[in-house]
Design brief:
Number of helices: 6
Structural class: alpha/beta
Helix content: 25-40%
Number of domains: 1
CATH topology: Rossmann fold
Shape: globular
CATH class: Alpha Beta
Largest sheet: 8 strands, mixed
CATH architecture: 3-Layer(aba) Sandwich
Length: 214
């Protein structure tokens, strides 16, 4: 068993890897954590993580710059059904389209668009930065089992995903209106917040993801 954290030039990979290593050790899991830009490592992994920090287009370009990586993701995640976690922009890339400084194609795994946040309260600043309460919409999802009422997670973003179907929204937070915090379908899940920066809540979610067998 192994988890592949994809290195495509975006994201704080060191903190993500350390959080996954802590979750593995803290839950007695027999798993290797590998940060990789090699599609062969992704092909061999039991769990796959796509982090991301920065602009949608830059992250998409960075992913496409790795020969064979998009194809490896499509094969392992869509065809083979292995558990996948997208984090922040890695979650946003699941959408059909990103509208950050232009219009760019996403992976198209969850139908919807990534658009700029527009809080109803003009006093709320963009980016949305800091701790916010998670409001689960799918209480029976195995990866959300450790999210208890009142749990908070750490967000840093100016854009968010708006799925075409509300069934893809597993949790929201309130920032001048409902903002998508977690999306998912089948063996795919994505968090707009950073679990690696969300202390106990984040470590619990990572551990539940690593033990997920969809």
């Amino acid at each position: 068993m192994s988890v592949a954290i994809i290195d495509y030039g975006s994201g704080n990979l060191r903190s993500a890897a350390k959080a996954f290593e802590r979750a593995v050790a803290g839950n007695g899991l027999d798993m290797d954590v590998r940060v990789t830009a090699d599609p062969a490592v992704v092909n061999a992994a039991s769990h796959i993580v796509l982090p991301g920090v920065g602009a949608f287009a830059d992250c998409r370009q960075g992913l496409e710059a790795l020969p064979g990586m998009v194809e490896a993701l499509e094969r392992t995640v869509l065809h083979d059904g292995r558990p996948f976690l997208g984090i922040c922009v890695g979650m946003q890339l699941l959408a059909t389209t990103g509208r950050e400084h232009g219009v760019y194609p996403g992976l198209g795994w969850i139908a919807g668009e990534v658009v700029r946040l527009t809080p109803s309260d003009p006093g709320l600043k963009i980016p949305h930065m800091g701790w916010n309460e998670l409001v689960p919409a799918a209480s029976d999802h195995p990866v959300l089992a450790g999210i208890t009422p009142g749990a908070h997670a750490y967000f840093v973003h100016s854009y968010g995903i708006v799925p075409e179907s509300s069934s893809a929204i597993l949790a929201t937070c309130d920032y001048g209106g409902a903002v998508t915090a977690i999306v998912g379908r089948d063996n795919i899940i994505g968090t707009q917040f950073h679990p690696e920066k969300s202390q106990a809540v984040g470590l619990r979610l990572i551990a539940d993801f690593l033990q997920w067998r969809p």
